């Protein structure tokens, strides 16, 4: 395991010398995965909330489907998006294959089910906590969704982080739809796969260490968005 | 209550920032660009890192390399997901052109395959007089052999070599014949881990950094010849193909400047690719 210490040394020197290629790759990783998380939250939160509080036919199937899709292998998502965006595919004319946009699309598809499933559970729990309160005020369901999303925002932030973790760490989807093109679609995970295939295991591991530091940095950053004092969850929701 | 309201803009700002990232990610490059569907050895050995800046400098055309196995590269090119095909499976390349997917195939350069294996050479490859005998020795010894198993150019070559040796290794699949279904580097990593024999192109082997106890045990035999070819994808099949830029790249690679550059590329002091385009 002496490789590990030399990997740390390589990682530190890459960071220390502000290696331009490394920063480009890290930047793209963040851009792609954060964009995918943003889009997934936009889609997943309202859908998750609707499933949580709505009572409509097919609701149970939706829950089961979104829960199962959480286990979708990234390489399958990659294949689906590849077939759709390939020139011979239905969206080929858009010319999106082998672009960062294609990678954002793939990761969005990958993590939206996670956001939906986890948000649904969070909001469902919160909803039963507030059931009496909502009943007493006879609040409409639109207002209810907004209130629940707002009151559950810190739990939902964790939901977002789960999605981000899945997105930034996957290699199967971005490899296929991005093509791992140098200076265009190479991200941390595809770079690690490439260096491993070149047999440069120490550099690959160094990139892995940097990827983990990156995830740590994002988590620390988001930690400070949380309030220092916690509101009592049992108190009535804010009446903004 | 108030503090929760005050925090709203911060979260919104965060998502706004995330969103801006997404939009900027979609901005296309301004320069003309082409995509090469390529075999992995040319990319992993660093050949493109050496050649492409020279071409890009001369022509102002950005070259994006998608490095996959030859089989996958050909299929991707058939789907129109590349402007130029650069692989090493001559028969398949000619079929690609014959079927109308490519304009014309040109010889580009060559090198050779080598059989690598554990330094102790338990199957005795170093005593073999031919590649067929070398393979026979492996199959008889029962020492592991790591095969690409991925329909790549190297895999096709390996299967052809087994055929001409009169051996069908598929019966031993999972036994001594281990098909990784992965790229050359990944398969070499497996061979290292299992102390297995393996067929690899010399360029990937020389630039491979994790050789550990493996070394070249059989080489320099005409059947191990490895020819690379370059083909422009036909824009009559795929109208979006950048035929002008793609042709410029093919012309440059097969022309004097590109051929000289290929010959000048060195790794660990060794020449990895030998240009042989017809003038």
Characterization of this structure:
The complex is a heterodimer of chains A (240) and B (279). Chain A is mostly helical. Chain A has a single domain, classed as MetI-like fold (Orthogonal Bundle), CATH 1.10.3720. In chain A, 74% of the residues lie in helices and 0% in strands. Chain A has helices spanning 2-16, 20-53, 59-69, 74-85, 100-129, 131-137, 141-151, 153-169, 172-178, 188-197, 201-223. In chain A, helix 2 packs across helix 7 (141-151). Residues 229-240 of chain A have low confidence and may be disordered. Chain B is of the alpha/beta class and 279 residues long. Chain B has two domains: 33-111 and 227-275, D-Maltodextrin-Binding Protein, domain 2 (3-Layer(aba) Sandwich), CATH 3.40.190.10; 112-224, D-Maltodextrin-Binding Protein, domain 2. In chain B, 43% of the residues lie in helices and 23% in strands. Chain B contains eleven helices and twelve strands. Chain B has helices at 2-25, 40-44, 47-59, 70-78, 90-98, 131-141, 153-164, 184-194, 202-207, 243-254, 256-264, and strands spanning 33-38, 62-67, 84-87, 102-118, 145-147, 177-179, 197-201, 214-218, 225-233, 266-267, 270-271, 274-275. In chain B, the strands form two sheets. In chain B, strands 1, 2, 3, 4, 5, 6, 7, 8, 9 and 12 form a ten-stranded mixed beta sheet that branches. Chain B has a two-stranded antiparallel sheet with strand order 10-11. In chain B, helix 10 (243-254) crosses helix 11. Chain A binds chain B through residues 30-32, 34-35, 37-39, 41, 86-89, 92-93, 95, 97-101, 104, 150, 153, 179-182, 184, 194, 196-201, 225, 227, 229, 231, 238-240, and chain B through 1, 3-5, 7, 10-11, 14-15, 18-19, 21-22, 24-26, 28-29, 35, 40, 44, 48-49, 64-67, 76, 78-81, 183-186, 188-189, 192, 207-211, 238, 240.
């Amino acid at each position: 395991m002496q490789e590990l210490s030399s990997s740390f040394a390589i990682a530190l020197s890459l960071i220390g010398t502000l290696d331009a290629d490394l920063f480009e790759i890290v930047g793209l990783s963040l851009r792609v995965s954060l964009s995918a998380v943003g889009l997934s939250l936009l889609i997943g939160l309202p859908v998750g909330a609707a499933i949580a509080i709505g009572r409509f036919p097919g609701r149970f199937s939706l829950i089961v489907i979104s829960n199962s899709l959480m286990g979708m292998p990234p390489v399958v998502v990659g294949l689906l998006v590849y077939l759709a965006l390939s020139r011979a595919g239905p969206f080929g004319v858009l010319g999106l294959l082998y672009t960062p946009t294609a990678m954002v699309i793939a990761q969005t598809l990958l993590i939206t089910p996670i956001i939906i499933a986890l948000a649904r559970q969070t909001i469902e729990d919160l909803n039963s906590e507030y059931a009496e309160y909502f009943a007493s005020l006879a609040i409409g369901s639109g207002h209810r969704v907004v209130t629940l999303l707002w009151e559950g925002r810190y739990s939902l932030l964790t939901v977002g982080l789960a999605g981000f973790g899945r997105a930034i760490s996957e290699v199967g989807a971005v490899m296929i739809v991005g093509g791992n093109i140098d200076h265009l679609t190479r991200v941390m995970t595809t770079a690690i796969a490439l260096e491993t295939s070149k047999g440069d295991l120490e550099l690959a591991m160094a990139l892995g260490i940097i990827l983990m530091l990156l995830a740590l940095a994002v988590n620390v950053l988001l930690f400070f968005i949380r309030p220092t004092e916690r509101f009592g969850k049992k108190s009535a929701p804010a009446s903004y | 209550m108030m503090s929760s309201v005050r925090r709203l803009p911060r979260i919104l700002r965060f998502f706004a920032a995330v969103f801006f990232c997404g939009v900027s990610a979609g901005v296309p490059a301004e320069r003309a660009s082409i995509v090469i569907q390529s075999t992995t050895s040319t990319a992993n050995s660093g050949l493109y890192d050496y050649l492409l800046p020279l071409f890009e400098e001369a022509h102002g055309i950005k070259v994006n390399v998608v490095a996959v196995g030859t089989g996958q590269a050909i299929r991707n090119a058939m789907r129109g997901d590349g402007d130029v095909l650069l692989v090493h499976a001559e028969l398949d390349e000619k079929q690609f052109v014959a079927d109308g997917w490519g304009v014309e195939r040109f010889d580009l350069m060559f090198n050779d395959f080598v059989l690598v294996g554990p330094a102790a050479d338990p199957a005795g490859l170093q005593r073999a007089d031919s590649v067929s005998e070398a393979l026979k020795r492996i199959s008889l010894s029962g020492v592991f052999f790591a095969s690409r198993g991925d329909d790549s150019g190297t895999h096709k070559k390996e299967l052809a070599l087994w055929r001409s040796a009169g051996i069908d290794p598929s019966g031993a699949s999972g036994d001594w014949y281990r098909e990784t279904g992965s790229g050359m580097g990944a398969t070499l990593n497996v061979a290292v881990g299992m102390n297995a024999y393996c067929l690899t192109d010399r360029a990937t082997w020389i630039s491979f950094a994790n050789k550990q106890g493996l070394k070249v045990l059989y080489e320099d035999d005409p059947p191990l010849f490895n020819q690379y070819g370059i083909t422009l994808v036909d824009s009559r099949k795929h109208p979006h193909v950048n035929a002008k830029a793609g042709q410029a790249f093919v012309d440059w690679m097969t022309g004097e400047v590109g051929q000289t550059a290929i010959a000048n590329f060195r790794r660990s002091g060794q020449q990895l690719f030998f240009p042989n385009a017809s003038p």
